Amino acid sequence: MKQKLFLILFLLFITLNISGCWSKKELNEIAIILGTGVDYTKDNKIQLTYQLARPAAFGGGGMGGGPGGGAAMNQNITWVISATGDTVFDAQDKLSQQVSRHLYLGHNVVLILGERLCRHGVKDVNNFFHRQPLSRGTVWVMATPQEAKKVLESHSELQITSAQAVGFLARFRTGYAVKFRDFSQDLASRGTDPVLTRVELKNQGVAQGPGLEKVHHHQEIVITGTAIFKGDKLIGWLDSRETQGLRCIKGEMHEMRITVPSPIYPDKNISLKVIAGNTKIEPAYQKGEIKFYLTVRAEVDLIEQQDEEDFTQPEMIKIVENKAAAEIRQHIKTTLDKVQGEYKVDSFGFGEAFHCKHKREWSMLKNRWDEEFTNAQVYLTVKVKLRDTGMQGRRASLKK
Amino acid sequence: MGKILEGGKIDARQTLYLLVTMIYATLILFVPQNTVAHAQQDAWLSFLVAFAGGVLISLVVINLSLRFPGQTLFEYLPRILGRFPGKIIGFFYVWLFIHLCALVDREYCSTIVAAFMPETPLVVFLIHGTIMFAYLAYSGLEVLARLSQLFLPLNAGLLTILFVLATPEMKVVNILPVFDTSLLSLAKSTLTPLSWFGEIITLAVIIPYLAEQKNVYRLTIKALFFVLVLIELSTVGVLLIFGPALTGSYLFPVLNGTKMINIANFFERLEIIPIVIWITSGTVKATLFFWAATLGSAQLLGLKDYHPLILPLAVIVTSLSYLLHPNIIDLLNFLTEDFPFYALTFEFLIPFLLLIIVLIKETGKK
Prior knowledge:
Chain A is α/β, with parallel strands linked by helices. Helix content of chain A is 33%, strand content 32%.
């Protein structure tokens, strides 16, 4: 009898406990944040902007819609809200009084930082995204010369939201993409100064469709280069071309496009796509002088030619390879001149490479690494291999 | 004699699994962070050193235990030191096991609260944990061993899969350069993992229940080696993902490492896997210490049955784990700064002294 009673009580206890979680938040109780923007206002406060998804509109009533497609017309798919506060959490606290659901950071795609904040220093805000249990290291971090709030107040023609769209841009490595983890690692490292993807809201293309005969200009978030930091402070920008040089030095050349002048007809061009590439940094320390030997290897595919070079000739391939190597070398030189010469920072991780090779010297140099790096010589070797020529060997119009 | 106290017998394989689970469970939860904070990218080296220390400790413990066949630590302590001092030291060991159990319980519950359910009171998890391991201790050592036999292959497999999935996020430069840490920091970083490997002292309670005692040495070293493999996998794994600076700053680096997994923008959010690993292995670990504490107190008090002690000890463990540390930072500081010295006293110093006394006595007899 006693045992039976105990069993019943025990079963009751179990049913009470497995029925649900204590801090459960159902899907219809949370507001999913897709994009986060942080700005530094004129009166020195933190302005936090969230792009919230409105999943009810995602199904796409009427035309369009569906996963991957743009949203239906005249539906608000996102809701962009912002508030200012002394810290990020302070601002979020104010937001939570405006939103009828729990703010849920777990699905955040991008973190966009405004220029004023970047110039002031990002250490004031990035800690929140470390301590928040729902925040992830996979979030794409970007900097914008505009206001982050303005950038998030946009939508995408192809993706459902602009935050997801810019997330895809980063994922496809169209610029130099930086994850929150990479950014934090660079911030903590003495041998690498952080960089961020630069994004802007720009008039981009024309949206057309039946019923849209009146030309409708559309603003879309686009990647326009790279932001260069010294420590946690922004000190300058690289444009898209200079970003290519950065990608070469960092060894992230996959999917990079290069266009070189034709070897025979100087006013015509040849376009190549980098299929695979890697970079090796070999540091040397001699009599107080720091030298770096940079070896870049790239495999390229021929994508387009404007004139009639014959690519069935091995010599021609050799020539194009050399041209491409020269082009990559030029990219790297431009970027190095700007970053090392003008901004005087080490955004490339030369310091880390030096640390790996010269442990003892590093402990002396690490506190003034940026100055030391400015005086360092970088010697370049670029090797390019042409792998494929697309679907064609020689041009159809080329006469034998 | 308290021979009938625990009737279970476990075979070699179960012992191996039980010992591995007992050590690695919390080792991969709290220790990588602290070790990396001291030893930076050379943390893998400190685990090697700690492993060597663990082997030394296990040799002492096994050598001591095999001199008193069929008896647990609590039974042979009075035979070495005399009735009264032996029992006092014995009660210190009971306290150690109670404390270890409370710590393990607290570590798990704090993790869940910090990482997943910040709004749920800690005590809710503590009570659930206690009910679980009290029930398991009631079922005895054999059931516990079979449980570890069930969970360990699963957990080790899951852990390996996790780090294989995370390889796209790994960069070799993150663990370079090697041997960059000063000897002092390396020594500091070794202490905490060493105290974890030292938990092998529990073997002194388990040995009498092994089905065959021939291969205990080989078995134990095998178990310690397996733990080494698991901890090296986790630590080097998270180091490759985050580099030393970030790894040293995260409370649960393995959890953060899991969060980085993203295969094709589709296969992601696998955080539940480390939690499954931690909860299942942690339950086994806490129960083993709890079982050792109840068995020990029963043997010291000369009871015929240890089951009546389960409930009161469970209450003590729950309140201890709730009251010992006000917050997770305090718990971490204790585990990394005070715990090694406190634990190693019991894990190495006392068994070592006991072994010397036994050796002196034996030569005296001759």
